[in-house]
Amino acid sequence: MARSFFTWAQMSWWGTTVRESTMGFAIASVFLLFGIVLLVGGVFLMSLRLLGLIMRDRPISRVARDLRGWTLVGLVMTLVSGSSMWAGHGIMPDLYESGPFWLEMELLLAALVFHFTLYRRVTSRDDAPPLLRGFTAVLALSLWFGVGVAGRAIGFF
Amino acid sequence: MTLLEICQAIQDTRIGTAIWFDLRALGLNMVDRRISEVYRQIDAWMTGGFVLMFVTGGLLFWARAADSYSNVYFRIKLVGLVLAGANAMYFNLKTKRGIGGWDTAGRPPFNVRMAGLASIVLWASVIAAGRLMAYTF
């Protein structure tokens, strides 16, 4: 079932366009990086605030509101460019058979769920216990960094 | 995955902190905060990021110096780095002198906004050239 979904995406005009244009895949990977810069940069600064390392005089909920918009822009950019790379990849490496690819997808799913539930909650209030704040910050950094490393690893296994 | 690849990953994510100051200079984010305040809070992390970037970048170059030197995207990347550095230096030495006049401005004067925009565009081109480099080795 999943296999035919992969094939369908590869055969669609979208996948074909990315695959057959000379710079299509390279351009998608550049935009993936732009998205990562905004997304990971935003999560990084938010985590530093949760850990009490920067902007201590500004309430957490306020910092969260400062960072939310552009972080979301970054997230959308990574999802659009990333799925373009998925649809536009050739037969090598076969993503369906790739361990790191599925690890990346699992981590991405976990990161997304976490981002819009616990992370969202803890950053929206100013009375969360310090231990919960620290846990949220460390988990946010680990999950997103994990997604990136797993994605980068696709090319090597 | 090799150490080299981890360096590359760090390279690619380092600019994420500096861009938030650029957005403030452009008047697009945290407009109720003093520009000097945003700068002060992010400064140490920006500087740390750049030091890390030059160390890992130097290692990456060292590993493939000959290939890199003849690569057109590598040259574009170097030009972008130099211009980004010049832009930051000009802002710090010249533009910032008048900060008293626009520190609290939601929409700073034209030259301040241009410094922010130039920084974003230049760093984006550094990232893009660096990535395209990998496709042309």
Oligomer: heterodimer
Strand runs of chain B, count? 0
Biggest interface pair, counts: A-B, 28 and 25 residues
**Which value, in Å, is the CA radius of gyration of chain B?**
16 Å
Mean pLDDT of chain A, rounded to whole units?
92
> What overall form of chain A do the CA principal axes indicate?
elongated
Number of strands of chain A: 0
Low-confidence stretches of chain B are none
Cα separation of the termini of chain A: 24 Å
- How much helical structure, as a percent, in the residues of chain A? over 70%
Q: Decide which structural class fits the backbone of chain A.
A: mainly alpha
Sketch the major β-sheet of chain A.
Answer: none
What is the number of helices of chain B? Answer: 7
Structural class of chain B: mainly alpha
Distance between the termini of chain B: 18 Å
Outline of chain B, from the CA principal axes? elongated
Describe this structure in words.
- The complex is a heterodimer of chains A (157) and B (137).
- With 157 residues, chain A is mainly α.
- Chain A is built from seven helices and no strands.
- In chain A, helix 3 (24-50) packs antiparallel against helix 4 and helix 5 runs parallel beside helix 6 (118-124).
- The longest helix of chain A has 29 residues, at 60-88.
- Chain B is mainly alpha-helical and 137 residues long.
- Chain B contains seven helices and no strands.
- Chain B has helices spanning 3-13, 18-25, 35-63, 65-69, 72-93, 99-102, 110-135.
- Chain B is elongated, with a radius of gyration of 16 Å.
- Chain B starts with a helix and ends with a helix.
